[in-house]
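Q: Hi! First time doing this. I have a protein sequence and I read that you can turn it into a structure. Is that right? Here it is:
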Amino acid sequence: MPKQKTHSGAKKRFHVTANGKVKYARPTKGHFLTTKSQARKRKLRKGSYIAGKNAKNIKTLLAQ
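A: Yes, that's right. Below is the predicted 3D structure, encoded as structure tokens:
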């Protein structure tokens, strides 16, 4: 059976940490930043983790 290829879009957006959690950057920080408040932009700086079934699906896309 052939190997599963890594999903090109997923590998740009997610990465798996050493503990096996799936980490991603918060969306909506690309443009139109003048309309967003400083507090909102500050909260968007930190990454976040995907939990549960969604994390399992992402790991499948990343071929892990």
